[in-house]
Structures are given as C-alpha cells and as structure tokens.
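Q: Here's a chain of 154 amino acids. Please give me its 3D structure as tokens.
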Amino acid sequence: MLKKIRSRKPSGAGGHFAIVASQYNSRYVDGMLRAAKAELRRARAASIQVVRVPGAFEIPIVADKMAGSGKYDALVCLGAVIRGDTPHFDYVCEAVTQGLGDAVKTHKIPVGFGILTTDNVQQAMDRAGSKDANKGYEALLVAVEMVNVLRQVS
C-alpha cells in the first residue's frame, strides 16, 4: 500500500532551528530576520539560535558547521547581494548557492534559502518588506515544511 506524503501547513512545534543572517545589507536582512523569528515563535519552535556573520559570502561556512552539529532540525540562511558594476555579484551569489547546496547534500538537513540576489535596491526592499512579500518569512516556511515532510518519510 502506498502512503501519501503531503506537504501541509507547517508546524515547527518542538523543532530546533538556526538562522544564519548576514550583517551586510542589514537594511534588508534585518526585516527578513524579524519575520523569520516571529514565524518560528508563532509555530512554537522549541529553540531558535541566531548567528550573525559579516556578509553573505560567510554564510555557507557557518551553515555547514551548524548543519553538521546535529543540534538543529533545519537552518534558514538570510542575506542580500545587490548587483553592482563589477562581476563581484556573480561570484558571491554562486559561492553562497554552491556552499549551501553542499551543506544540504552533506548533512541531509533542510536549509531555507533566504538570500536575496537582486539587480537593485528597490528589488531588495520589495522582497524584505511586508509578510506577504518577505523572503525571510518564505525561507522559514519552506524549512519548517521540509522538516515536516522529512518526519513523514523517516
């Protein structure tokens, strides 16, 4: 008999979560962090650990270490990389994406990807604002939902 695995309204009850957030571009990241923390409290998470790092490029090394610790059910990574006049944007975005993907593959833990990669400041503001358009909130929901799905397939 086949059992249906469903994604349902996420519940973080009893879960242990970590948020790794960049200090750089804090104007946008702080709004995403507030939204993610508020949703975790609403979802009745057992614990929330927040670690701030200098910039988006530094997120993967901390996320990898935390993912490998066995202390957390899921991580949420928050940062903002805004395109400038040089290729720096491309290198940072690629390194962050690759590093977080490696952490997921290595440690088999959900990582909510809340890294804004925008062409301009207005796009960053639009994605870090209200709850309905807040990518920090969305990344947290995905992480919690994945915890629930993984519990069903275990």
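Q: Can you summarize the key feature?
A: The mean pLDDT is 90.
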